[in-house]
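Hi team,

Filling in the usual template for the complex we talked about on Friday. All components are listed, including any nucleic acid strands or ligand strings, so the model treats them as one assembly.

SUBMITTER: L.P.
PURPOSE: interface mapping
COMPONENTS: two
RESIDUES: 639
SEQUENCES:
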Amino acid sequence: MSKISYLSGKEPDSCEHRMIFKNIDREGWDPSIACYLKDGGYEQLRKALKMNPADITNEVKISGLRGRGGAGFPTGVKWGFIPPNNTKPVYLICNCDESEPGTFKDRYIVHQDPHQLIEGMLISALAIGAHTAYIYMREEFPEAAILMEKAIEEAREKNFLGSDILGSGFDLEIFIHRGAAAYICGEETGLIESLEGKRPYPRIKPPYFPAALGLYMAPTIVNNVESICHVKHIIEMGGAEYAKLGTPRNTGTRILCVSGDVKKPGYYEVEVGKITMGELLNDVCGGPLDGRSFKACIPGGSSAKILRCDETFKIGNGENQKELGFYDIPMDFDTMAACGSMAGSGGVIVMDDSRKMSWVLNNINHFYAHESCGQCTPCREGSMWMRKISDRIVDGKATPEDIQTLEDVAYQIDGRTVCAFGEAASWPVEAMISKFRDELEAETSEDNEYLSPEAKRQLKNIS
Amino acid sequence: MKTQTTFPAFAISSEIEDAANTRIAQYPNDQKRSAVLPLLHIVQHKFGFINREATEWVAQKLELEPMQVHEVVSFYPGFREHAPGKYHFRVCRTLSCAMAGSAELMDRICELTGIDRSNSDSHHNPIAVSPCGLWSVEFAECLASCGTGPVCLVNDDFHEDVAPEKAENLIGQYNN
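RESULT (copied from the run log):
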Protein backbone atom coordinates (compact mmCIF):
# COMPACT_ATOMS: atom_id res chain seq x y z
CA MET A 1 0.00 0.00 0.00
CA SER A 2 1.29 3.43 -0.87
CA LYS A 3 2.14 5.88 1.87
CA ILE A 4 -0.89 7.71 3.17
CA SER A 5 -0.80 11.47 2.89
CA TYR A 6 -3.22 13.90 4.46
CA LEU A 7 -4.62 17.29 3.56
CA SER A 8 -2.36 20.11 4.59
CA GLY A 9 -2.90 21.07 8.23
CA LYS A 10 -4.68 17.75 8.85
CA GLU A 11 -1.61 15.52 9.18
CA PRO A 12 -1.75 13.25 12.23
CA ASP A 13 0.33 14.24 15.23
CA SER A 14 3.26 11.94 15.93
CA CYS A 15 1.55 10.60 19.08
CA GLU A 16 -1.50 9.49 17.14
CA HIS A 17 -2.34 5.93 16.22
CA ARG A 18 -4.81 6.21 13.35
CA MET A 19 -7.15 3.28 12.84
CA ILE A 20 -10.74 4.50 12.74
CA PHE A 21 -9.63 7.90 11.43
CA LYS A 22 -7.06 6.50 9.00
CA ASN A 23 -9.01 7.89 6.04
CA ILE A 24 -10.32 11.09 7.56
CA ASP A 25 -9.08 14.19 5.74
CA ARG A 26 -6.83 11.91 3.73
CA GLU A 27 -5.55 13.25 0.42
CA GLY A 28 -7.33 11.71 -2.57
CA TRP A 29 -9.84 9.92 -0.35
CA ASP A 30 -13.55 10.02 -1.13
CA PRO A 31 -16.53 8.30 0.47
CA SER A 32 -17.29 6.11 -2.58
CA ILE A 33 -17.22 2.32 -2.45
CA ALA A 34 -14.61 2.22 -5.23
CA CYS A 35 -12.19 4.15 -3.05
CA TYR A 36 -12.98 1.97 -0.03
CA LEU A 37 -12.48 -1.27 -1.99
CA LYS A 38 -9.12 -0.05 -3.31
CA ASP A 39 -8.07 0.34 0.32
CA GLY A 40 -8.91 -3.27 1.19
CA GLY A 41 -12.54 -2.57 2.07
CA TYR A 42 -14.99 -5.37 2.92
CA GLU A 43 -12.13 -7.90 3.31
CA GLN A 44 -12.97 -8.22 7.01
CA LEU A 45 -16.59 -8.94 6.08
CA ARG A 46 -15.43 -11.85 3.93
CA LYS A 47 -13.34 -13.09 6.84
CA ALA A 48 -16.21 -12.72 9.32
CA LEU A 49 -18.67 -14.52 7.02
CA LYS A 50 -16.48 -17.63 7.37
CA MET A 51 -16.48 -17.35 11.16
CA ASN A 52 -18.94 -18.73 13.67
CA PRO A 53 -21.06 -15.82 15.11
CA ALA A 54 -20.16 -16.84 18.65
CA ASP A 55 -16.47 -16.60 17.74
CA ILE A 56 -16.93 -13.03 16.51
CA THR A 57 -18.53 -12.06 19.82
CA ASN A 58 -15.73 -13.84 21.59
CA GLU A 59 -13.05 -11.92 19.69
CA VAL A 60 -14.79 -8.66 20.65
CA LYS A 61 -14.87 -9.81 24.28
CA ILE A 62 -11.17 -10.70 24.21
CA SER A 63 -10.36 -7.34 22.63
CA GLY A 64 -11.71 -5.61 25.73
CA LEU A 65 -13.46 -3.00 23.56
CA ARG A 66 -15.45 -0.57 25.69
CA GLY A 67 -18.30 1.47 24.24
CA ARG A 68 -17.19 4.81 22.90
CA GLY A 69 -20.51 6.59 23.32
CA GLY A 70 -19.99 7.65 26.91
CA ALA A 71 -20.61 4.87 29.41
CA GLY A 72 -17.57 2.75 28.47
CA PHE A 73 -19.47 -0.53 28.83
CA PRO A 74 -17.72 -3.58 27.29
CA THR A 75 -19.24 -4.10 23.84
CA GLY A 76 -18.77 -7.89 23.72
CA VAL A 77 -20.46 -8.29 27.09
CA LYS A 78 -23.40 -6.18 25.89
CA TRP A 79 -23.80 -8.49 22.89
CA GLY A 80 -23.78 -11.48 25.21
CA PHE A 81 -26.92 -10.24 26.99
CA ILE A 82 -29.22 -11.37 24.17
CA PRO A 83 -31.28 -14.21 25.69
CA PRO A 84 -29.87 -17.52 24.39
CA ASN A 85 -33.27 -19.10 23.66
CA ASN A 86 -34.59 -16.01 21.86
CA THR A 87 -37.07 -16.61 19.03
CA LYS A 88 -37.88 -12.97 18.15
CA PRO A 89 -36.02 -11.02 15.47
CA VAL A 90 -32.85 -9.31 16.71
CA TYR A 91 -32.15 -5.67 15.80
CA LEU A 92 -28.90 -3.78 15.55
CA ILE A 93 -29.05 -0.02 15.97
CA CYS A 94 -26.12 2.26 15.29
CA ASN A 95 -26.35 5.29 17.54
CA CYS A 96 -25.35 8.22 15.39
CA ASP A 97 -27.16 10.81 17.48
CA GLU A 98 -23.82 12.34 18.42
CA SER A 99 -24.90 15.30 20.52
CA GLU A 100 -22.90 15.35 23.72
CA PRO A 101 -21.48 18.89 23.77
CA GLY A 102 -17.76 18.72 23.04
CA THR A 103 -17.94 15.56 20.93
CA PHE A 104 -17.46 15.63 17.17
CA LYS A 105 -15.92 12.31 16.08
CA ASP A 106 -18.87 10.41 14.57
CA ARG A 107 -19.51 13.37 12.27
CA TYR A 108 -16.26 12.65 10.39
CA ILE A 109 -16.90 8.92 10.09
CA VAL A 110 -20.36 9.25 8.57
CA HIS A 111 -19.36 12.11 6.27
CA GLN A 112 -16.04 10.74 5.07
CA ASP A 113 -15.85 6.99 5.63
CA PRO A 114 -19.41 5.59 5.49
CA HIS A 115 -18.35 2.15 4.29
CA GLN A 116 -16.17 1.56 7.33
CA LEU A 117 -19.33 1.94 9.41
CA ILE A 118 -21.36 -0.32 7.11
CA GLU A 119 -18.68 -3.04 7.25
CA GLY A 120 -18.56 -2.76 11.05
CA MET A 121 -22.35 -3.01 11.19
CA LEU A 122 -22.34 -6.07 8.93
CA ILE A 123 -19.87 -7.89 11.18
CA SER A 124 -21.74 -6.84 14.34
CA ALA A 125 -25.09 -7.93 12.87
CA LEU A 126 -23.55 -11.27 11.93
CA ALA A 127 -22.35 -11.76 15.49
CA ILE A 128 -25.68 -11.00 17.14
CA GLY A 129 -27.87 -12.57 14.43
CA ALA A 130 -29.61 -9.38 13.28
CA HIS A 131 -31.13 -9.13 9.82
CA THR A 132 -32.41 -5.58 10.12
CA ALA A 133 -30.29 -2.69 11.28
CA TYR A 134 -31.03 1.00 11.67
CA ILE A 135 -28.68 3.94 11.79
CA TYR A 136 -30.27 6.54 14.03
CA MET A 137 -28.85 9.67 12.46
CA ARG A 138 -29.22 13.01 14.18
CA GLU A 139 -31.30 15.49 12.22
CA GLU A 140 -28.47 18.02 12.18
CA PHE A 141 -26.48 15.78 9.80
CA PRO A 142 -28.68 16.15 6.69
CA GLU A 143 -25.76 15.70 4.32
CA ALA A 144 -24.59 12.55 6.11
CA ALA A 145 -28.06 11.01 5.83
CA ILE A 146 -27.89 11.39 2.05
CA LEU A 147 -24.28 10.17 1.91
CA MET A 148 -24.97 7.12 4.07
CA GLU A 149 -28.02 6.22 2.01
CA LYS A 150 -25.92 6.42 -1.14
CA ALA A 151 -23.24 4.24 0.49
CA ILE A 152 -25.87 1.67 1.50
CA GLU A 153 -27.12 1.60 -2.10
CA GLU A 154 -23.57 1.07 -3.39
CA ALA A 155 -23.00 -1.76 -0.93
CA ARG A 156 -26.27 -3.39 -1.93
CA GLU A 157 -25.28 -3.28 -5.61
CA LYS A 158 -22.14 -5.23 -4.76
CA ASN A 159 -24.18 -7.67 -2.63
CA PHE A 160 -22.45 -6.64 0.60
CA LEU A 161 -26.00 -5.88 1.78
CA GLY A 162 -29.34 -7.46 0.93
CA SER A 163 -30.09 -11.15 0.85
CA ASP A 164 -27.62 -14.02 0.64
CA ILE A 165 -24.64 -11.69 1.11
CA LEU A 166 -21.70 -12.91 -1.00
CA GLY A 167 -23.34 -16.32 -1.23
CA SER A 168 -23.10 -16.91 2.51
CA GLY A 169 -26.82 -17.21 3.16
CA PHE A 170 -26.68 -14.23 5.55
CA ASP A 171 -29.19 -11.39 5.01
CA LEU A 172 -28.98 -7.83 6.25
CA GLU A 173 -30.78 -4.59 5.44
CA ILE A 174 -29.59 -1.28 6.85
CA PHE A 175 -31.93 1.72 7.00
CA ILE A 176 -31.38 5.33 7.97
CA HIS A 177 -33.75 6.76 10.55
CA ARG A 178 -33.37 10.49 11.11
CA GLY A 179 -33.97 12.00 14.53
CA ALA A 180 -35.28 15.51 15.11
CA ALA A 181 -32.78 17.45 17.20
CA ALA A 182 -33.40 15.95 20.64
CA TYR A 183 -30.35 15.19 22.81
CA ILE A 184 -32.27 12.55 24.79
CA CYS A 185 -32.39 10.32 21.69
CA GLY A 186 -28.72 9.52 22.36
CA GLU A 187 -29.91 7.57 25.42
CA GLU A 188 -30.46 4.07 24.05
CA THR A 189 -33.98 3.44 25.33
CA GLY A 190 -35.04 6.98 24.38
CA LEU A 191 -33.62 6.30 20.95
CA ILE A 192 -35.67 3.12 20.69
CA GLU A 193 -38.87 4.96 21.64
CA SER A 194 -38.06 7.57 19.01
CA LEU A 195 -37.49 4.84 16.42
CA GLU A 196 -40.93 3.49 17.32
CA GLY A 197 -42.38 6.87 16.36
CA LYS A 198 -43.02 8.25 19.83
CA ARG A 199 -41.70 10.92 22.16
CA PRO A 200 -38.26 9.71 23.25
CA TYR A 201 -39.06 9.11 26.91
CA PRO A 202 -36.38 6.70 28.20
CA ARG A 203 -37.57 3.35 29.52
CA ILE A 204 -36.89 2.12 33.00
CA LYS A 205 -34.21 -0.54 33.49
CA PRO A 206 -34.99 -3.19 34.64
CA PRO A 207 -36.97 -4.60 32.92
CA TYR A 208 -36.34 -2.77 29.64
CA PHE A 209 -32.74 -3.67 28.94
CA PRO A 210 -32.57 -3.33 25.15
CA ALA A 211 -30.67 -6.61 24.74
CA ALA A 212 -33.79 -8.41 26.02
CA LEU A 213 -36.69 -5.97 25.49
CA GLY A 214 -35.62 -3.37 22.97
CA LEU A 215 -37.07 -2.21 19.65
CA TYR A 216 -40.63 -3.59 19.29
CA MET A 217 -39.91 -5.48 22.54
CA ALA A 218 -37.38 -7.65 20.71
CA PRO A 219 -33.67 -8.06 21.56
CA THR A 220 -31.80 -5.00 20.34
CA ILE A 221 -28.18 -3.97 20.49
CA VAL A 222 -27.47 -0.24 20.39
CA ASN A 223 -23.84 0.67 19.72
CA ASN A 224 -22.07 3.95 19.07
CA VAL A 225 -20.67 4.68 15.59
CA GLU A 226 -17.05 4.56 16.76
CA SER A 227 -17.58 1.31 18.71
CA ILE A 228 -19.02 -0.38 15.63
CA CYS A 229 -16.09 0.77 13.49
CA HIS A 230 -13.69 -0.78 16.01
CA VAL A 231 -15.32 -4.19 15.44
CA LYS A 232 -13.97 -4.24 11.89
CA HIS A 233 -10.44 -3.67 13.17
CA ILE A 234 -10.82 -6.30 15.88
CA ILE A 235 -11.66 -8.89 13.23
CA GLU A 236 -8.70 -7.73 11.16
CA MET A 237 -6.20 -7.88 14.02
CA GLY A 238 -7.74 -10.56 16.22
CA GLY A 239 -9.04 -9.72 19.68
CA ALA A 240 -5.80 -10.54 21.49
CA GLU A 241 -3.67 -8.42 19.18
CA TYR A 242 -6.13 -5.51 19.46
CA ALA A 243 -5.99 -5.76 23.26
CA LYS A 244 -2.27 -4.99 23.11
CA LEU A 245 -3.16 -1.47 22.02
CA GLY A 246 -3.78 0.93 24.86
CA THR A 247 -3.49 -0.16 28.48
CA PRO A 248 -4.99 -3.16 30.34
CA ARG A 249 -8.77 -2.80 30.79
CA ASN A 250 -8.60 0.29 28.56
CA THR A 251 -7.73 -1.23 25.22
CA GLY A 252 -7.58 0.00 21.66
CA THR A 253 -7.58 3.51 20.33
CA ARG A 254 -10.07 6.26 20.85
CA ILE A 255 -10.73 9.60 19.28
CA LEU A 256 -10.31 12.59 21.55
CA CYS A 257 -12.10 15.73 20.45
CA VAL A 258 -10.52 18.87 21.83
CA SER A 259 -12.28 22.22 21.73
CA GLY A 260 -12.16 25.53 23.53
CA ASP A 261 -9.15 27.59 24.53
CA VAL A 262 -6.22 25.71 22.98
CA LYS A 263 -4.04 26.66 20.03
CA LYS A 264 -4.89 23.58 17.98
CA PRO A 265 -8.37 22.23 18.68
CA GLY A 266 -9.45 19.16 16.71
CA TYR A 267 -9.67 15.38 16.71
CA TYR A 268 -6.80 13.12 17.76
CA GLU A 269 -6.93 9.31 17.64
CA VAL A 270 -4.64 7.91 20.32
CA GLU A 271 -4.11 4.63 22.13
CA VAL A 272 -6.33 4.69 25.23
CA GLY A 273 -4.38 5.75 28.30
CA LYS A 274 -1.08 6.14 26.44
CA ILE A 275 -1.21 9.90 26.56
CA THR A 276 -1.65 12.18 29.56
CA MET A 277 -3.79 15.27 29.86
CA GLY A 278 -0.63 17.40 29.87
CA GLU A 279 0.74 15.83 26.70
CA LEU A 280 -2.63 16.23 25.00
CA LEU A 281 -3.20 19.86 25.93
CA ASN A 282 0.35 21.21 25.93
CA ASP A 283 2.13 19.20 23.26
CA VAL A 284 -0.50 17.94 20.85
CA CYS A 285 -2.88 20.89 21.06
CA GLY A 286 -0.13 23.49 21.30
CA GLY A 287 -0.89 24.76 24.79
CA PRO A 288 -2.98 27.75 25.86
CA LEU A 289 -3.51 30.80 23.67
CA ASP A 290 -0.74 33.41 23.92
CA GLY A 291 -0.68 35.20 27.23
CA ARG A 292 -3.20 32.82 28.76
CA SER A 293 -3.02 29.85 31.10
CA PHE A 294 -5.28 26.83 31.50
CA LYS A 295 -7.90 27.11 34.21
CA ALA A 296 -10.33 24.21 33.92
CA CYS A 297 -11.17 21.30 31.69
CA ILE A 298 -14.21 19.12 31.04
CA PRO A 299 -12.64 15.78 30.05
CA GLY A 300 -15.47 13.75 28.49
CA GLY A 301 -18.36 15.77 27.12
CA SER A 302 -20.29 18.44 29.01
CA SER A 303 -21.90 15.90 31.40
CA ALA A 304 -18.50 14.96 32.80
CA LYS A 305 -17.44 16.68 36.00
CA ILE A 306 -15.15 19.63 35.43
CA LEU A 307 -11.53 19.41 36.64
CA ARG A 308 -9.32 22.27 37.80
CA CYS A 309 -5.98 22.42 36.05
CA ASP A 310 -4.20 23.11 39.36
CA GLU A 311 -5.74 20.11 41.12
CA THR A 312 -4.06 16.98 42.45
CA PHE A 313 -5.94 13.73 42.91
CA LYS A 314 -5.40 10.83 45.29
CA ILE A 315 -6.14 7.59 43.52
CA GLY A 316 -5.94 3.94 44.55
CA ASN A 317 -6.15 2.48 48.05
CA GLY A 318 -3.69 1.64 50.83
CA GLU A 319 -0.16 1.02 49.63
CA ASN A 320 -1.13 1.60 46.02
CA GLN A 321 -2.38 5.07 46.72
CA LYS A 322 -0.64 7.79 44.78
CA GLU A 323 -1.00 11.44 44.03
CA LEU A 324 -1.64 12.54 40.50
CA GLY A 325 -1.54 16.07 39.17
CA PHE A 326 -4.11 17.19 36.59
CA TYR A 327 -1.54 17.16 33.79
CA ASP A 328 -0.44 13.61 34.67
CA ILE A 329 -3.88 12.00 34.29
CA PRO A 330 -3.72 9.36 31.54
CA MET A 331 -6.64 9.63 29.10
CA ASP A 332 -8.32 6.33 29.98
CA PHE A 333 -11.69 5.30 31.42
CA ASP A 334 -10.61 4.06 34.86
CA THR A 335 -8.15 6.75 35.98
CA MET A 336 -10.52 9.47 34.87
CA ALA A 337 -13.25 7.86 36.97
CA ALA A 338 -10.86 7.58 39.93
CA CYS A 339 -10.22 11.33 39.61
CA GLY A 340 -13.94 11.91 40.06
CA SER A 341 -14.87 12.62 36.47
CA MET A 342 -15.38 10.46 33.39
CA ALA A 343 -13.74 9.83 30.03
CA GLY A 344 -17.28 9.77 28.62
CA SER A 345 -17.52 10.44 24.92
CA GLY A 346 -13.98 11.80 24.54
CA GLY A 347 -15.02 15.43 24.19
CA VAL A 348 -12.40 17.56 25.95
CA ILE A 349 -13.46 21.17 26.47
CA VAL A 350 -10.73 23.49 27.75
CA MET A 351 -11.17 26.85 29.46
CA ASP A 352 -8.42 29.37 30.11
CA ASP A 353 -8.12 32.10 32.74
CA SER A 354 -10.20 34.51 30.69
CA ARG A 355 -13.35 32.47 31.33
CA LYS A 356 -15.82 33.15 34.10
CA MET A 357 -17.02 29.85 35.55
CA SER A 358 -20.49 31.23 36.23
CA TRP A 359 -20.88 31.92 32.52
CA VAL A 360 -19.65 28.43 31.63
CA LEU A 361 -22.02 26.82 34.10
CA ASN A 362 -24.92 28.91 32.89
CA ASN A 363 -24.29 27.88 29.30
CA ILE A 364 -24.29 24.20 30.34
CA ASN A 365 -27.43 24.66 32.45
CA HIS A 366 -29.25 26.20 29.48
CA PHE A 367 -28.37 23.12 27.46
CA TYR A 368 -29.77 20.63 29.97
CA ALA A 369 -32.84 22.71 30.75
CA HIS A 370 -33.60 22.75 27.03
CA GLU A 371 -32.92 19.06 26.49
CA SER A 372 -34.63 17.46 29.50
CA CYS A 373 -37.38 15.29 28.04
CA GLY A 374 -39.71 16.13 30.90
CA GLN A 375 -40.65 12.60 31.87
CA CYS A 376 -39.27 12.67 35.45
CA THR A 377 -40.20 15.55 37.71
CA PRO A 378 -36.81 16.04 39.45
CA CYS A 379 -35.08 16.50 36.11
CA ARG A 380 -37.79 18.47 34.30
CA GLU A 381 -38.25 20.96 37.14
CA GLY A 382 -34.72 20.81 38.52
CA SER A 383 -32.87 21.49 35.28
CA MET A 384 -35.05 24.56 34.71
CA TRP A 385 -34.56 25.72 38.29
CA MET A 386 -30.79 25.36 38.04
CA ARG A 387 -30.86 27.41 34.84
CA LYS A 388 -32.84 30.16 36.51
CA ILE A 389 -30.40 30.34 39.41
CA SER A 390 -27.35 30.44 37.19
CA ASP A 391 -29.07 33.13 35.07
CA ARG A 392 -29.29 35.19 38.24
CA ILE A 393 -25.64 34.60 39.09
CA VAL A 394 -24.58 35.74 35.64
CA ASP A 395 -26.85 38.78 35.86
CA GLY A 396 -25.30 39.72 39.22
CA LYS A 397 -28.62 39.30 40.99
CA ALA A 398 -27.85 36.24 43.11
CA THR A 399 -27.27 35.97 46.85
CA PRO A 400 -24.72 33.63 48.50
CA GLU A 401 -27.69 31.48 49.53
CA ASP A 402 -28.47 30.87 45.87
CA ILE A 403 -25.25 28.88 45.49
CA GLN A 404 -26.40 26.58 48.26
CA THR A 405 -29.85 26.22 46.70
CA LEU A 406 -28.26 25.43 43.37
CA GLU A 407 -26.17 22.68 44.92
CA ASP A 408 -29.18 21.28 46.82
CA VAL A 409 -31.26 21.12 43.65
CA ALA A 410 -28.49 19.29 41.81
CA TYR A 411 -28.17 16.64 44.51
CA GLN A 412 -31.92 16.13 44.47
CA ILE A 413 -31.92 15.30 40.75
CA ASP A 414 -28.89 13.02 40.84
CA GLY A 415 -30.01 9.38 41.13
CA ARG A 416 -33.73 10.12 41.08
CA THR A 417 -34.52 9.78 37.39
CA VAL A 418 -35.31 6.99 34.94
CA CYS A 419 -32.23 7.59 32.80
CA ALA A 420 -28.73 8.98 33.22
CA PHE A 421 -29.80 12.44 32.04
CA GLY A 422 -30.41 13.30 35.69
CA GLU A 423 -26.73 12.76 36.42
CA ALA A 424 -25.69 14.41 33.17
CA ALA A 425 -27.53 17.58 34.17
CA SER A 426 -26.56 17.64 37.84
CA TRP A 427 -22.90 16.55 37.76
CA PRO A 428 -21.67 19.71 36.02
CA VAL A 429 -23.40 21.81 38.70
CA GLU A 430 -22.15 19.68 41.60
CA ALA A 431 -18.58 19.70 40.31
CA MET A 432 -18.56 23.38 39.42
CA ILE A 433 -19.72 24.37 42.89
CA SER A 434 -17.33 22.05 44.70
CA LYS A 435 -14.34 23.27 42.66
CA PHE A 436 -15.15 26.92 42.07
CA ARG A 437 -17.34 27.83 45.04
CA ASP A 438 -15.26 30.89 45.91
CA GLU A 439 -15.40 32.27 42.43
CA LEU A 440 -19.16 31.74 42.17
CA GLU A 441 -19.81 33.23 45.60
CA ALA A 442 -17.73 36.28 44.71
CA GLU A 443 -20.31 37.07 42.04
CA THR A 444 -23.16 37.09 44.51
CA SER A 445 -24.07 39.74 47.05
CA GLU A 446 -25.90 39.82 50.37
CA ASP A 447 -27.55 43.00 49.13
CA ASN A 448 -29.42 41.16 46.40
CA GLU A 449 -32.87 39.97 47.20
CA TYR A 450 -33.04 36.24 47.68
CA LEU A 451 -36.46 35.91 46.15
CA SER A 452 -36.99 36.61 42.50
CA PRO A 453 -39.92 38.92 41.65
CA GLU A 454 -42.00 35.97 40.50
CA ALA A 455 -41.32 34.01 43.70
CA LYS A 456 -42.36 37.06 45.70
CA ARG A 457 -45.62 37.32 43.79
CA GLN A 458 -46.32 33.67 44.50
CA LEU A 459 -45.61 34.12 48.21
CA LYS A 460 -48.15 36.92 48.30
CA ASN A 461 -50.77 34.57 46.90
CA ILE A 462 -50.03 31.99 49.55
CA SER A 463 -50.18 34.25 52.61
CA MET B 1 -47.89 35.07 11.51
CA LYS B 2 -47.97 37.98 9.10
CA THR B 3 -44.74 37.26 7.29
CA GLN B 4 -45.11 36.14 3.72
CA THR B 5 -44.18 32.54 3.26
CA THR B 6 -41.92 31.26 0.53
CA PHE B 7 -43.09 27.66 0.77
CA PRO B 8 -45.84 25.97 -1.25
CA ALA B 9 -49.12 25.28 0.55
CA PHE B 10 -49.54 21.74 1.86
CA ALA B 11 -50.82 19.42 -0.86
CA ILE B 12 -50.39 15.72 -1.50
CA SER B 13 -48.72 14.72 -4.72
CA SER B 14 -47.72 11.33 -6.08
CA GLU B 15 -44.10 12.30 -5.39
CA ILE B 16 -44.88 12.80 -1.70
CA GLU B 17 -46.89 9.58 -1.56
CA ASP B 18 -44.04 7.62 -3.13
CA ALA B 19 -41.45 9.06 -0.77
CA ALA B 20 -43.71 8.25 2.19
CA ASN B 21 -44.33 4.68 1.03
CA THR B 22 -40.58 4.08 0.63
CA ARG B 23 -40.03 5.16 4.23
CA ILE B 24 -42.92 3.10 5.57
CA ALA B 25 -41.41 0.02 3.90
CA GLN B 26 -38.29 0.38 6.11
CA TYR B 27 -40.21 -0.89 9.11
CA PRO B 28 -42.05 -4.14 9.86
CA ASN B 29 -45.63 -4.24 8.51
CA ASP B 30 -47.18 -4.10 11.95
CA GLN B 31 -44.93 -1.21 13.06
CA LYS B 32 -45.98 1.58 10.73
CA ARG B 33 -45.87 4.06 13.60
CA SER B 34 -42.08 4.02 13.30
CA ALA B 35 -42.45 6.07 10.13
CA VAL B 36 -43.83 9.11 11.97
CA LEU B 37 -40.49 10.96 12.09
CA PRO B 38 -39.47 10.13 8.51
CA LEU B 39 -42.86 11.25 7.16
CA LEU B 40 -42.75 14.47 9.14
CA HIS B 41 -39.30 15.13 7.69
CA ILE B 42 -40.67 14.70 4.18
CA VAL B 43 -43.46 17.18 4.90
CA GLN B 44 -41.24 19.74 6.59
CA HIS B 45 -38.60 19.57 3.89
CA LYS B 46 -41.15 20.25 1.17
CA PHE B 47 -43.54 22.67 2.89
CA GLY B 48 -41.24 24.36 5.41
CA PHE B 49 -43.27 23.43 8.47
CA ILE B 50 -45.92 21.01 9.70
CA ASN B 51 -49.48 22.28 9.91
CA ARG B 52 -52.64 20.59 11.11
CA GLU B 53 -53.52 19.27 7.69
CA ALA B 54 -50.10 17.66 7.36
CA THR B 55 -50.36 16.13 10.82
CA GLU B 56 -53.71 14.61 9.89
CA TRP B 57 -52.33 13.26 6.63
CA VAL B 58 -49.42 11.55 8.43
CA ALA B 59 -51.84 10.11 10.98
CA GLN B 60 -54.18 8.75 8.32
CA LYS B 61 -51.25 7.32 6.37
CA LEU B 62 -49.95 5.43 9.41
CA GLU B 63 -53.36 4.52 10.87
CA LEU B 64 -52.79 6.64 13.97
CA GLU B 65 -54.77 9.27 15.84
CA PRO B 66 -53.71 12.81 14.83
CA MET B 67 -52.76 13.41 18.48
CA GLN B 68 -50.14 10.65 18.28
CA VAL B 69 -48.48 12.57 15.48
CA HIS B 70 -48.94 15.99 17.04
CA GLU B 71 -47.29 14.95 20.30
CA VAL B 72 -44.20 14.08 18.26
CA VAL B 73 -44.25 17.36 16.34
CA SER B 74 -44.60 19.38 19.52
CA PHE B 75 -41.82 17.52 21.34
CA TYR B 76 -38.89 17.56 18.94
CA PRO B 77 -37.03 20.84 18.46
CA GLY B 78 -36.32 19.69 14.89
CA PHE B 79 -39.97 20.04 13.87
CA ARG B 80 -41.66 23.39 13.27
CA GLU B 81 -45.30 24.39 13.39
CA HIS B 82 -44.77 27.80 11.78
CA ALA B 83 -43.06 28.85 8.59
CA PRO B 84 -39.40 29.83 8.84
CA GLY B 85 -37.76 32.10 6.30
CA LYS B 86 -36.61 30.83 2.94
CA TYR B 87 -33.14 30.65 4.48
CA HIS B 88 -33.21 29.34 8.01
CA PHE B 89 -30.07 29.87 10.12
CA ARG B 90 -29.46 27.55 13.06
CA VAL B 91 -26.56 28.89 15.08
CA CYS B 92 -24.98 26.59 17.66
CA ARG B 93 -25.45 28.01 21.15
CA THR B 94 -23.62 25.38 23.21
CA LEU B 95 -20.39 25.77 25.17
CA SER B 96 -17.52 25.46 22.69
CA CYS B 97 -19.29 27.54 20.04
CA ALA B 98 -20.37 30.08 22.64
CA MET B 99 -16.73 30.40 23.74
CA ALA B 100 -15.84 31.00 20.09
CA GLY B 101 -18.45 33.77 19.76
CA SER B 102 -21.72 32.26 18.56
CA ALA B 103 -23.85 34.79 20.47
CA GLU B 104 -22.08 37.61 18.64
CA LEU B 105 -22.57 35.73 15.37
CA MET B 106 -26.31 35.51 16.06
CA ASP B 107 -26.48 39.24 16.85
CA ARG B 108 -24.65 40.07 13.65
CA ILE B 109 -26.93 37.88 11.51
CA CYS B 110 -30.00 39.52 13.06
CA GLU B 111 -28.54 42.98 12.49
CA LEU B 112 -27.82 42.27 8.84
CA THR B 113 -31.19 40.66 8.08
CA GLY B 114 -33.35 42.94 10.19
CA ILE B 115 -34.54 40.16 12.48
CA ASP B 116 -35.89 41.07 15.91
CA ARG B 117 -35.21 38.27 18.40
CA SER B 118 -36.53 40.10 21.45
CA ASN B 119 -39.62 37.88 21.65
CA SER B 120 -37.78 34.62 21.10
CA ASP B 121 -37.06 32.08 23.79
CA SER B 122 -35.57 28.63 23.50
CA HIS B 123 -38.64 26.68 24.59
CA HIS B 124 -41.80 28.21 23.22
CA ASN B 125 -40.82 30.50 20.41
CA PRO B 126 -37.34 29.60 19.17
CA ILE B 127 -37.61 30.96 15.62
CA ALA B 128 -37.54 34.61 14.63
CA VAL B 129 -38.32 35.61 11.04
CA SER B 130 -37.30 38.77 9.19
CA PRO B 131 -40.12 41.15 8.12
CA CYS B 132 -39.47 40.26 4.47
CA GLY B 133 -39.92 36.55 5.19
CA LEU B 134 -36.65 35.66 3.47
CA TRP B 135 -34.57 35.03 6.59
CA SER B 136 -35.06 33.35 9.93
CA VAL B 137 -32.82 32.42 12.85
CA GLU B 138 -32.82 29.99 15.74
CA PHE B 139 -30.30 28.89 18.33
CA ALA B 140 -29.51 25.17 18.03
CA GLU B 141 -27.98 22.98 20.73
CA CYS B 142 -24.60 21.40 19.98
CA LEU B 143 -24.19 20.73 16.25
CA ALA B 144 -21.24 18.38 16.94
CA SER B 145 -18.43 20.34 15.39
CA CYS B 146 -17.00 21.88 18.56
CA GLY B 147 -13.44 22.06 17.24
CA THR B 148 -14.37 24.45 14.44
CA GLY B 149 -16.79 26.83 16.19
CA PRO B 150 -18.76 28.91 15.81
CA VAL B 151 -20.79 26.77 13.45
CA CYS B 152 -24.23 27.07 11.91
CA LEU B 153 -26.60 25.34 9.55
CA VAL B 154 -28.31 27.31 6.80
CA ASN B 155 -31.17 25.06 5.69
CA ASP B 156 -29.21 21.84 5.00
CA ASP B 157 -25.80 23.48 4.43
CA PHE B 158 -23.26 23.29 7.21
CA HIS B 159 -20.81 26.15 7.82
CA GLU B 160 -17.77 25.99 10.12
CA ASP B 161 -15.54 28.70 11.56
CA VAL B 162 -18.13 31.42 11.06
CA ALA B 163 -16.61 34.18 13.14
CA PRO B 164 -19.09 37.08 13.59
CA GLU B 165 -17.22 39.16 11.03
CA LYS B 166 -17.89 36.47 8.42
CA ALA B 167 -21.67 36.77 8.82
CA GLU B 168 -22.00 39.27 5.98
CA ASN B 169 -20.21 36.95 3.58
CA LEU B 170 -22.30 33.99 4.70
CA ILE B 171 -25.57 35.82 4.14
CA GLY B 172 -24.24 37.02 0.78
CA GLN B 173 -24.06 33.41 -0.37
CA TYR B 174 -27.84 33.15 -0.07
CA ASN B 175 -28.91 36.65 -0.96
CA ASN B 176 -30.35 36.22 -4.40
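MY TAKE: The two ends of chain B are 24 Å apart (CA to CA). The beta strands of chain B are 87-92, 128-129, 135-140, 152-154, 157-159.

Thanks, L.
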